[in-house]
Amino acid sequence: MSAAESAAAIQRNLVDLLDFIDWSGVECLNQSSSHSLSNALKQGYREDEGLNLESDADEQLLIYIPFTQVIKLHSIVIKGSEEDGPKTVKLFTNKEHMGFSNVSDFPPSDTAVLSPDNLKGKPVVLKYVKFQNVRSLTIFIEDNQSCSEITKVQKIALYGSTVETTDMKGLKKIEEH
Amino acid sequence: MVLEATMICIDNSEWMRNGDYSPSRFQAQADAVNLICGAKTQSNPENTVGVLTMAGKGVRVLVTPTSDLGKILACMHGLEIGGEMNLAAGIQVAQLALKHRQNKKQQQRIIVFAGSPIKHDKKSLEMIGRKLKKNSVALDIVNFGEDDEGKMEKLEALLAAVNNNDTSHIVHVSAGPNALSDVLMSTPIFTGDGEGGSGFAAAAAAAAAAGGVSGFEFGVDPNLDPELALALRVSMEEERARQEAAAKKAAEEASKQEKGGEEQSSSQEATMTEHASGGTSEADNKKNDLSDDDNALLQQALAMSMDEPASSHDLQDMEMPDVAADDPELALALQLSVQDSTKDSSSQTDMTSWGRSK
Questions:
Q1: Which residue from B13, B16, B162, B37 is spatially nearest to B87, judged by alpha carbons?
Q2: Which regions are flagged for Basic and acidic residues bias (chain B) (predicted)?
């Protein structure tokens, strides 16, 4: 299974979608102010074991990540500790400004129950069909492994590929003669 | 300038009939609400404010978050007092109203006026607070009116549950001479989390502090008319400088007067005569003309010389012959002044005295 997975990964030219995140629109509800989403998402911070994203009032977290262009999402890596790491994770695509009250209003695009292996870094492969045309991703962390008050997430990484779109930076103005 | 959607929860229960805040608790509350709405809409034009009442028949939303100040002020009219306040339901409805705001980029804030006793227990209030924090809604509490036991603790507990990085505040206003609105104006509820305060709030606070209609220097608002305010300030400084110079000169002359006696006064009179020849001979007219003149020194001298003959009449009479004998030039000057004085109708007595001394 893992061999097939990695083969598929090589085939699809998977990239870390960190570069395509639109940082100005990233939001996280119920995060603790000292332990914010940057600790889990941003380059460098997410590799640091000591820096975690932590929840505040209760154990749920709602993370909204918009992208700068349309992408296909293949898999997701969520790393955390065995006790406080997330357990049930629901993913919603292309739904803006969700709140805790309407997470149950529509079915998620995918649901993942994280095992200890996942929490060590094993990617969770997502349903291919649902993640072909993703403009924004909402991650709802419903509970954690030990049902404690605070959920701690050490790293969130997204892997996928881009849809064929024009790279605006590559466009050059035509010189007028 | 934070972009914010605010819901104001008004307490219109029976407890608001009390008159311990002038004119009545309800009226003081209404004034405060009007001021808050104005401050919010002015600090950022895209801010929206909504109002709901917590008592009466039940929680009722009067106006959903809007940036139209007129609409908000209009809905404050004709509010009726009655019933009991339902704090929990009020906050929850406010949260719902904010959830359905049009501009999702706005921060959410609820301002609660808690004037009557609170019948909910601390636990349920804390749960409400945590739910607000989870959905990143800030809460401002104005504790006024009834002060029964446990009310302050409950509200403090609610604030502690909601507060995230000091975005939520509580203000206790006790009954007294200060109006509810005035007390609120200096709090973060008005000034908005220490960003420096909106111009509205700062200006209103200054006016209230001065206690007058216009709390500004010279009665002109620097915000409204900066050039006029500047001109007034500059002319005030010039006047002050001029008066200081004149006072200094007067002091110098006063000291010289004591030493030099007549010489000083006669030289003054000489200068007086020069001017007299140029203008009218009437001393009264001279005085009037010079009062508008920039030369305050001259004015001072004129005043003194006018006063001198009347007051130190005898002194002059006695000293005159001696001085004239010593200094022929001085005598000439005196003669000139005498000639002019003879034309002066107001100094008739002086003339006769002069003539006699001569």
A1: B13
A2: 243-262
